[in-house]
């Protein structure tokens, strides 16, 4: 059965006789004449169909089915198939007949198949060229950083510059813990007043003052020493991180010389920020405290509860807003107020992101301290026979203080560079996002191709 012309498959060849064969030509003409005259005795009306034009003997036969337009789209290359984009014919499916590499007139050369072998023609697939990778002269790539890259950059700084980082953090941790152990061991060696206070159900104000004054004084001394150590560690480690981003090494002496002029300002900054947080907390608690003096207990409790919640919110907001002030003060050589204003500008618009990263850093530091404290606490309880967990005198004994001090030194040696590195990298990340600091860093690191790039577009006419 012959296919209808309108349903012939593309490229299929019709079973027509070869016009160059005389026998077929003669038979064909006789058959056509017989069809035109009809069969004797048949009354059916016969019509003659037009004979399609034959191709000359020297030209190939037209492969197009009947009723197709004379101008057809260009044929696809022979290596293309209808189910594959790789240029390789799929299994069981070869090239379609009639869709060879020959193209119609005026259609130009055949484009190369996408992804196929051979040299790539100019102008083809130019939009799919791979973007250049950002330079990475140091511990982080010079582009906006993700959360994982900030954490990894802090750890990479500890690994790449472990001598300097370990020297700074270990020295600060040892000094602060030795001072704390001496203060606790010498100042709190007499615990009789604390024991008497614990056994007295209704102590007087004088007894409270005598029992708590020594403990509060010792804790104040330990806090001051710890703050001084934190200032020195933060200043020097910030310098180390800034050099590590550029791929440059730094010694202890270089870190100390670069950070020493800013130590007093950094100390003032680390005192001012907690003071502002405390003032905000006090302002939120003030209505409840005033109401409590009037004798309305229930209303005072409600106001104190909501004031406490409001104070926590205000404290967290101020802590996040000014958390980038230390690296801004150290790296930009600014004053107290200018560094705090600079931190607020950098944090603006990214408050929630910075809060999340800082909370993650806090969780990591707390987890490290907890993991380190488990074996030291167990060893202290084992040495003291369990009395160090319940007896104040045993807890402040020299054996317990030494064992717990060793654990605190190990924890501080790890947590100090980790926390300082995360804060410094957050500061650099915010400047890269807002001020294109990556171009200046690449130029400072000597990356090829960044020598003459500007961070701002040139002025018109320049």
UniProtKB/TrEMBL annotation:
Its protein name is DUF7847 domain-containing protein
Q: Give the compositionally biased regions (Low complexity).
A: 1-15
Q: Where is the composition biased (Gly residues)?
A: 95-107
* Region listing for Disordered, in residue ranges: 1-141
DUF7847 domain spans which residues? 218-427
Alphabetized, the UniProt keywords read: Membrane, Transmembrane, Transmembrane helix
Concerning InterPro entries, the annotation shows: DUF7847
Biased amino acid composition, Pro residues = 50-59, 67-76, 109-120
TM region positions: 165-188, 219-246, 266-290, 296-320, 350-374, 401-428
């Amino acid at each position: 059965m012959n296919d209808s012309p309108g349903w012939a498959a593309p490229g299929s060849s019709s079973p027509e006789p070869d016009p160059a064969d005389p026998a077929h030509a003669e038979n064909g003409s006789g058959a056509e004449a017989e069809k035109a005259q009809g069969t004797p005795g048949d009354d059916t009306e016969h019509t003659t169909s037009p004979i399609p034009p034959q191709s000359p003997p020297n030209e190939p036969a037209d492969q197009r089915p009947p009723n197709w337009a004379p101008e057809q789209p260009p044929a696809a290359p022979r290596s293309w198939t209808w189910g594959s984009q790789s240029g390789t014919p799929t299994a069981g499916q070869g090239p379609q007949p009639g869709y060879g590499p020959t193209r119609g007139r005026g259609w130009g050369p055949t484009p190369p198949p996408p992804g196929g072998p051979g040299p790539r023609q100019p102008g083809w697939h130019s939009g799919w060229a791979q973007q250049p990778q950002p330079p990475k002269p140091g511990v982080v790539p010079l582009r906006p950083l993700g959360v994982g890259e900030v954490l990894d950059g802090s750890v990479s700084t500890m690994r790449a510059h472990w001598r300097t980082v370990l020297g700074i953090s270990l020295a600060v941790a040892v000094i602060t813990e030795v001072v704390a152990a001496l203060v606790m061991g010498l100042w709190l060696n007499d615990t009789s007043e604390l024991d008497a206070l614990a056994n007295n159900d209704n102590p007087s104000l004088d007894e409270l003052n005598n029992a708590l004054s020594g403990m509060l004084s010792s804790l104040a001394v330990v806090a001051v020493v710890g703050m001084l150590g934190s200032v020195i560690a933060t200043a020097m480690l910030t310098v180390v991180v800034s050099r590590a981003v550029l791929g440059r090494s730094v010694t202890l002496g270089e870190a100390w010389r670069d950070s020493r002029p800013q130590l007093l300002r950094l100390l003032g900054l680390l005192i001012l920020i907690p003071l502002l947080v405390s003032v905000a907390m006090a302002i939120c608690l003030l209505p409840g405290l005033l109401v409590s003096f009037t004798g309305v207990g229930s209303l005072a409790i409600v106001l104190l509860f909501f004031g406490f919640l409001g104070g926590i919110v205000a404290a967290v907001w101020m802590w996040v807003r000014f958390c980038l002030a230390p690296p801004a003060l150290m790296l930009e050589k600014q004053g107290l107020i200018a560094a705090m204003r600079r931190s607020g500008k950098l944090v603006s618009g990214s408050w929630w992101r910075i809060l999340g990263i800082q909370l993650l850093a806090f969780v990591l530091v707390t987890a490290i301290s907890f993991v380190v404290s488990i074996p030291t606490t167990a060893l202290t309880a084992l040495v003291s026979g369990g009395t160090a967990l319940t007896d104040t005198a045993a807890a402040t004994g020299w054996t317990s203080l030494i064992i717990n001090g060793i654990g605190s030194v190990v924890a501080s040696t790890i947590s100090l560079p980790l926390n300082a590195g995360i804060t410094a990298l957050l500061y650099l990340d915010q400047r890269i996002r807002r001020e294109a600091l990556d171009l200046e860093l690449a130029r400072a690191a000597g990356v090829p191709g960044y020598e003459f790039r500007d961070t701002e577009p040139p002025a018109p006419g320049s």
